[in-house]
Design goal:
Layout (H helix, E strand, L loop, with lengths): L7 E4 L6 H14 L7 E2 L7 E4 L22 E2 H4 L16 H13 L4 H18 L9 H13 L16 H22 L24 H10 L21 H14 L3 H5 L6 E2 L4 E4 L13 E4 L2 H12 L22 H15 L6 H14 L4 H8 L5 H10 L3 H8 L1 H4 L3
Helix pairs in contact: 3-4, 4-6, 5-6, 7-11, 8-10, 8-12, 12-14
Length: 417
């Protein structure tokens, strides 16, 4: 009701939300001939919202207004049928608020930074291809069309390698998971039907059998750390040069092989994390240790691996600093996952070893550990797995002789009953 000349009170008897009001109050004031307005009071159910204009054009009353002794009185029930009251508040996927809000939600769930970055990359790829579609207007057909595009037509640009090779089925599945995660969050946040319910989950073929390194391949990789590739010139004979990072690279290879560390965990190691006397290595918990799930653990280095690490550290002048990185690259910078992958790949090409990447050392450690008589429960602790599923996969690949293992551990035989 109208209280003071020049002041409009609007009664919202059906409890309109704050966001819908903000989207419509400007248009309402404009239809009243109001150039400036101010919103006062808390918006709750059956509350009144006052719009304070400096000037009010009495002759321009919007349809549905009630003529009284005061200039104008508006009731939400009479204006409910107006068009601008049916426009819902929406967020756009391209809007920074929607995307940043989703990423903040992922970070609040304590997901790994790599996982959050992967979701952000996949969603930006979706926006680039589909355009700036309103979240509430996304349908299952849009998502099906996008997934079919990346599965059949899209060819990624690669810095090195085959640029005609399409995305792997596992990559398509990962993009599907990112979209499903975002749509689930958006449907709960903006209260609309989740379009992912009409999208079938992409099929992913079973992982091929894990192939560990052979002893001969490890020996060739260690030997490849000593010298560069053979150089050939027109005016002199072929020659090879000694690599300045040979000791460091050998220490990295032996540490990966003897501990089964992940690439990010190896790059996060500091000098104080390694006890050279006992070979004990502490993987720090949380983001500092880069452990999956933020769980810290203890692993161990054997005598051969400790010898290689000691030879590498003996030539460094910063070993007195306990917080110095254990392995450093150019300009004394700590290693990262990409640099480590490129290093292992380059050594594999020089040594003639195919499928050479850091995670294959982890597979080799697990399978060799089981074949040497280790148990799956201790291996689970050393690898930092939360369940025995992956460890049992290693056990199947290791082809452990169950009959011989039972013969050694049989209680009736050992107790001579």
């Amino acid at each position: 009701m109208f209280d003071v000349p020049g002041k409009i009170s609007i009664r919202f008897g059906n409890g309109l939300t704050f966001l819908r009001l903000l989207g419509n109050i400007g248009g309402l004031a404009n239809r009243c001939g109001v150039e400036q307005w101010q919103l006062v009071g808390l918006i709750t159910r059956r509350s009144q919202v006052q719009v304070l204009p400096p000037l009010l054009n009495v002759n321009r009353r919007p349809p549905g207004s009630v003529k009284t002794g005061c200039p104008a009185v508006f009731d939400s029930k009479s204006l409910r049928k107006r068009r601008f009251f049916h426009e819902p508040w929406t967020a756009r996927l391209g809007d920074a608020k929607a995307l940043v809000g989703f990423l903040q939600n992922r970070g609040a769930e304590r997901l790994a930074l790599v996982t959050v970055a992967s979701c952000e990359r996949d969603l930006k790829f979706w926006i680039e291809h589909m355009g700036d579609i309103d979240v509430v207007n996304i349908k299952s057909q849009h998502i099906l069309s996008f997934l079919n595009y990346i599965r059949t037509d899209y060819v990624p640009r690669r810095i090195a390698g085959d640029n005609s090779k399409k995305l792997a089925p596992k990559t398509v599945y990962n993009i599907y998971v990112s979209l499903a995660s975002f749509m689930t969050w958006a449907s709960n946040e903006f209260n609309f039907a989740n379009p992912m319910k009409g999208v079938p989950r992409p099929r992913v073929p079973e992982d091929p059998p894990v192939e560990p390194f052979k002893k001969e391949e490890i020996e060739r990789l260690i030997k490849a750390c000593d010298f560069c590739q053979e150089a050939a010139t027109d005016r002199r004979r072929k020659f090879t040069m000694q690599r300045s990072t040979g000791k460091r690279d050998k220490a990295i290879l032996l540490t990966l092989l003897d501990t089964g560390l992940r690439a990010s965990e190896l790059c996060a190691l500091r000098i104080e994390d390694v006890d050279m006397k006992t070979g004990r290595i502490m993987i720090r918990a949380g983001e500092a240790g880069k452990a999956k799930g933020g769980k810290g653990r203890i692993v161990y280095l054997g005598q051969s691996a400790r010898r290689f690490v000691w030879r590498y550290l003996a030539e460094r002048d910063d070993t007195d600093d306990p917080e110095a990185p254990l392995f450093v690259g150019k300009f004394r910078r700590p290693f990262n996952r990409d640099a480590l992958r490129q290093l292992i790949k380059g050594l594999g090409e020089k040594a003639g070893v195919t499928k050479c990447h850091p995670h294959r050392f982890r597979h080799t450690f697990a399978i060799t550990y089981l074949r040497s008589g280790g148990d799956i429960f201790t291996l689970k602790s050393l690898l930092g797995h939360g369940s025995l599923d992956m460890v049992q996969h290693y056990a199947r690949v290791a082809d452990v002789d169950v009959q011989q293992a039972h013969r050694r551990a049989s209680p009736a035989d050992n107790w001579r009953l």
